[in-house]
Design brief:
alpha+beta, Beta Polymerase, domain 2, 6-stranded mixed beta sheet, 5 helices, 6 strands, elongated
């Protein structure tokens, strides 16, 4: 009888120990997972805070300066924030030739890529050079020749937009 009691007692003790061990292991694993998740989340939050937000306004201003410095005429930068659901800034400039228009478009695209890490999501009219459109989503650049600029008159279309000095 003594042996049966001892076997039963041993089984109970072993079961209890196994349960405790399993509980401890599961608890430790859960703590590790929670800790890793917290660390990852914290790292992401810190990375988001320390990464400067993309300054679309500054990009638009620098693009306007490029157009001005490359001798485009009637360079206008419009702030469409809150007015247009499609974009925040319109840059409108008039080139003196199709070659100049393409050069301005190339320089602005290069600025976007190198300094602001922006990609041009759409380009139109580059080959003909009469109306070149560069779409950077929050900044849209229009480089016209004088005939097309007068015909489309985008400034009149967006006359309620604020003009930005650059």
């Amino acid at each position: 009888m003594q042996k049966k009691t001892t076997k039963k007692t041993v089984k109970k003790v072993v079961k209890k120990a196994a349960k405790k061990t399993v509980k401890k292991t599961v608890k430790k694993a859960a703590q590790k997972v929670a800790k890793k998740t917290t660390v990852k989340t914290t790292k992401k939050a810190v990375a988001k805070k320390t990464t400067p937000p993309l300054d679309d306004r500054q990009f638009a201003i620098e693009a306007a300066r490029i157009a001005r410095d490359l001798n485009c005429t009637d360079v206008v930068l419009l702030d469409l924030t809150g007015i247009s659901p499609a974009t925040d800034f319109f840059l409108i400039a008039t080139g003196t030739s199709d070659r100049q228009g393409r050069t301005v478009a190339d320089e602005i695209t290069l600025l976007a890529k190198k300094k602001y890490n922006l990609r041009c999501f759409g380009t139109a009219g580059y080959d003909r050079g009469q109306w070149i459109l560069l779409d950077f989503v929050s900044v849209v650049v229009h480089v016209f020749d004088s005939k097309y600029r007068d015909y489309y008159n985008l400034e009149m279309l967006w006359d309620d937009a604020k003009k930005i000095d650059y």
